[in-house]
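Late entry, evening session. Most of the bench is empty. Finally got around to the prediction I had been postponing all week. Sequence below, unchanged from the version circulated by S.P.
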Amino acid sequence: MTTLAGRGTEVTSIERVLADARSGAACALVVLGEPGIGKTRLLSELSGRSTAAGFDVSTGRGSELEREVPFGMVVEALDKPFAALDNQVLADLGQQRLAELAAVLPSLAGRGENQASSLGIERFKFYRAVRATFERLVAFRPQVLALDDVHWADPASVELVSYLLRRLVPGMVFALAYRPRQMPTLILDAIVHVAQEGTLCALDLAPLTITETAEALGERAESSIVESLYAESAGNPFFLEHLARTARCGRSPSTCRPPHGKQYQNDIPTPLRTVILDELTGLDADTLTVLRAGAVVGDPFDVDLVAAIAEFDEQAVLKYFDELVASDLIRSTTTPGQFCFRHPIVRRVIYDEVTPSWRMLAHKQAAHALARRGADLSARAHHVEQSAVTGDDEAITLLEEAGLAAAPRAPVAAAGWFEAALHLLPKTGEQQPRRLKLLVSHANALADAGRLHDSRHVLEEVLESVSNESRGAWVQIVHMIARTDHGLGRSEEARQLIVRALDVVQPGSVDAVTLELALAENSLVRRQWEQSICLAALAEKQAGALGETAVLNLARSLLVSALAHQGDAAKARVIANDLAHDMDSSDDLLVPELLWPLANLADSELHLDRFSAAARHAERGLKISRATGHGWLVSRFLVAEAAAKLMLGRLHEASHAAESAVEVAQLFDSDQMRAAADGIHCWIEIANGNLPAALAAGRAAVEAVDRSPGVRYAWLARAGYAEALIETGEYERGREAILATGGLELRDMPPAARPYFLQALVTVELAAGRIDAASAVTRRLEEDSAQGLSCAGQAHYARTRVIAVSGDFRAAAEAANRASECFDAAEMHVWAARARLEAGRALARTGDIGSAIGEFEVAHSIFRDAGAVRLASQAAQELRAFGKRVRRRLDINEPDNPGTLTERERTVADRVAQGYTNREIAAELFLSPKTVEKHLARVFAKLGVASRAGVATAINRRTEY
């Protein structure tokens, strides 16, 4: 058969994608269709043409029967090519990235001086390392990563595929083949994202026509054999090939019937299954046993494992392999001693054909053989799960160990191994303590995998199983469930659970105090700050009397957090000082009991103008999380770190923390995490001057809040997006979004956060010419100015702007100076520079040009060093107006800049930075979308970025101030 018959258009598309990648574009290619439609053959064509064109090609395939083995597809695709990385690439990656790669890829095991993250919640670091490796490889040769049968990918590989799709590498083709109906939603969502970015080529394969069928068979279209086979195959190339094979052997497929009464299953039509089974009729019993053993081992499979299952020596197995290769049921691979099935469908049919008892025994023999070989736990666990019986202690232990080993990188696989172990463990008797331990491990793995609803369900089973004698453990599980509910935005359900639990514990006991603190935490989440203060104060007193240090620290941290949120800054600072002293005095202590107190303390310090302390405590929380393997609070620490460094003007570090928080949140089904991470990311991008990225992050945060209105950081999501809208000139929409946080009083927002967004309302009112309204908002700021330095600074800054509009520029300059002094005292140097910018403008209007230039120069220097691009540009414009030269970064249009953009590329890049889509750019510039895509590919390559947001940042940062 001519296997590419009818695929001329698709081959042309492949050539076009390869040409785009050679020119530096980031390209995604997806090949989709029903089983047997020709996806694998087209990917093979891509690989062959890529190799001929000078690309490096890496290939992998999902395996239907091994979907629980973590990173199976990824290891197959990347292990060999990454093992061949030269020393320069390895050095450029750095020790931390190399350690992340070594934690997954066997060929790199032991490489990297640093230790990979042990937290399942930080598995995105491995994904970053993979992408960084391809970024370095494309500097030498263009790359193709082609993954087949992605619908069968294991969950860990699915996450990596989704990550790479959303962050395509310029100069690389990322190709996927899959069946649409079985494709994981995570990848489908990423494919939609790529399509919106304009970098996707989708090949949806249709059945062959009768003319194409004739071409494939090498026959005339009007011949009876073509008509018969076309009608039987419905134009499916794989089915057609097998029908033609049967016809050539003189057999009639209609007479074949599958054994054991099997019907249509696994997306394989019964007639096709019948045709494949008919190929087995000529095999003798020993050859058939070897073939079945290969189906059990996997695809591909090794000689020695097949020999162990079939109970033949390896020489005999090789002889049978020769016969199977000759009949084209299996094929040799490029690895000596390794073979694969002609097609995954062939393997599935053969696997289904064997009896359950034979299959179970074969898996057991495979597990024993792998143990003798010293294979990794996941490979052994796959076969153990298929062959173990209830009460098999050795199997339970191995599955538990496999789960613990998989948890840091593949928590979904870990949850599967724990669940398998639980199925084998008796539910009653002396095994109950072991069962409870496994259930908790299962719940933690599910939580790390982002499946919080499933984790909560397992924790409920734990709660029901804990005996009355273990009341302390029961209370801890109640607390875990309540915190899970908080993460899911179900604060009322959490409250009801805690109240019911309080009814059954001894008043005044440690258990009761623990539950009271859980209730205080719940009140804080529900923004009932007075109630939270009362509960935390009572718990603090009781914990002190009981002498429970860990409970006391948690009580104090919740009390200071509630006070800070309620607005009683004076009391909060006293408690925060004492708690911080105690926390810092044990700085070398890395125990999980400190995590929640540190998280609450860092959060409180953000509201108390203690930004350096907040950053320090967030960083320590992350250090303890990584050292102890407790990942639940990582997102919260990252958000706190990002917020603190934003206020301190360390915008690059703030961006890095916020991006990590977003990547963690994307792995979870927690809208609480998403609202907080995207909300702070939005705010930071506003400060960076990247308004398209700020708007995108703000929209994502608001979408999370719309799904779960009760989340704790709903105010941050809505207000951050509002400020992004205001900065882009959409004043009234921004005003509406701010007022959605509790009306003019901003009731849903913590008092310490209100000044920042009242300032945004001042901007709206002044832009609309509503001076009286702006003055009214300013008076509200002044009423709260005693709360802290940042509040006082915001009040003076707002007054500066209102006075300037009235024309009293001398008074405006004085108010601006007071604002900058307050902000500097709070270490908010970027905000101080904004006040200096306003002071300079006011001084210039008074005629004091020398003082004005001095203010502009200081402001420009601070903005430039912080990376606040738009603000630096504003300060530079003011300086140029007075004939001052401005120190600037390299202009992307300078001839000596290697990243120089042509005039057309710069025009395209500017519109990308303004948020235009490819279609909108094409329409405005009278170009085709494909031409825009090519220009954008060159922009990506010259600027060294991989996304439209990256173009916006590069344009803003490199353009002359």
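Two things to note before I forget:
The chain has 47 helices and eight strands.
The beta strands are 26-32, 56-61, 143-148, 172-178, 200-204, 301-302, 330-332, 338-341.
Will write this up properly tomorrow.
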